[in-house]
Write a structure and sequence with these properties.
Blueprint (H helix, E strand, L loop, with lengths): L10 H21 L3 H6 L23 E7 L13 H5 L13 E2 L2 E2 L11 E4 L4 E4 L3 H4 L5 E8 L5 H10 L9 H9 L9 E5 L24 E3 L17 H19 L6 H24 L6 H6 L8 H15 L4 E6 L11 H25 L6 E6 L3 E7 L3 E5 L3 E6 L7 E3 L1 E2 L6 E3 L2 E2 H11 L9 E3 L2 E3 L15
Parallel strand pairs: 1-9, 1-10, 6-14, 6-17, 7-8, 7-9
Antiparallel strand pairs: 2-3, 4-5, 6-13, 10-13, 11-12, 15-16, 18-19
Helix pairs in contact: 7-8, 10-11
Amino acid sequence: MPPHHELLTDRRDFLRRGGAGFGALALASLLGDSKLLAALGDPQGRPGTPVPGKLTHTAGQAKSVIFLFMEGGPSHLDICDRKPLLNKLAGQKLPDSFGSVITAMGESRAPLMASKRTWRQYGNSGLEFSNWMPHTAEHADDLCVIRSCVSDGINHAGGVCMMNTGSIFGGRPSLGSWVTYGLGTDNQNLPAFVVMKDNDSDVVNGVRNWGGGFMPATYQGVMFDEGPSPIANLQTPRNISSARQSGKLAFLNQLNQAHYKGREDNSELDARIKSYELAFRMQAEAPGAVDLARETEATRKLYGMDSKRTETFGRMCLMSRRLVERGVRFIQLYHGSGSKWDAHQNIEDNHGRNCGATDKPIAGLLQDLKQRGLLDSTLVIWGGEFGRTPMSEKGDGRDHNPTGFSMMMAGGGVKGGTVIGETDELGLRAVKDKLHVHDLHATILHLLGVDHTQLTFNHHGRPERIDMNEGHAFKAIAG
């Protein structure tokens, strides 16, 4: 049968139908990068952008995440989980009723060590915090303190890997990669997943903590350098016009696509090509995103950038707020890069220094997000790979403790002014509402509107999940 054609009999009919067609073109343009089309995909299953925004499973309140990672293991016993019995029994051995304890240094028979902190209640909720974090504590009514966290990682390599990927062994995608894979990003001109650290030392395990694992490499985190110029080589040389730069990159893209043909299974090659394309798009938007000179002096002071002690982490926190404003999905800040929170000895100096460097910037971040209306949609997470033991280490320090430690969350639908779970009377083991790292990851995804049981990635014929089929979302954390 020959194709059917309608004859347009007059000029009015032609204009009417043509006008409707222009509307369809506009609709197609609006939907081009929409979450709906991204979720559906094209007929070949290829998204139109590297990490397009996607629909959530449920109406999660959080849209982005800022993970403040205190590398080395902060002591919950000296920050947000006061244990009066610990001070009462200081100098004595751990009671037999607690059983033997295997720590990173072997079986522990060290005496219990008191906390020298002073404590007070904050906000209408009356949450207790020590004098090591007084600024952050002022936001008690926005904070949820989870006192019953548990990890499988007893040393730094395993603990940091576990908290970031859900396994003590390397090779799995990081939490940021899972979030980016599940939700994409709302800004195609900036990385979806950004990582920053506070000094030149390497984070334990390095890039595996923000790597894509068995996922395509495009989902891995992008490291921003420490300092006032976080993205190197971003500016176009002065003698190169934008038209010339665009033409050069278009030609390089042709060469890259020709090389890519027949190598479609190489995700690292695909990610590198996309990184060049992203770098070109970033030349227009990223300089403004990372230019903190555009902030008022009052804002810079709020983050502690007027003090040498807090300037570095304050800059990182302020950068995070600017990235969240621009649709970046997952931002992870490492403070104490190189396990600088590790306090096997002289915890007073170690934690006093580290808390002093982070307390005001964290408080500034929470206040700034809230006053800009961003805290409700931004999930802020604080914590490390594990906590510290109630027993002493080398007389004036504490050993690693993965059997019961604390983390804090704020914003993103979290019910503020609350405490989840508890440890025993000495703060050694979680005893109520125990939340394993797998449960924490599932809960974070729940707050983002993602059902972790449905977020899967097929790897070697096996549907993999962030929680390795072991976690449960603790939904009571939501307000």
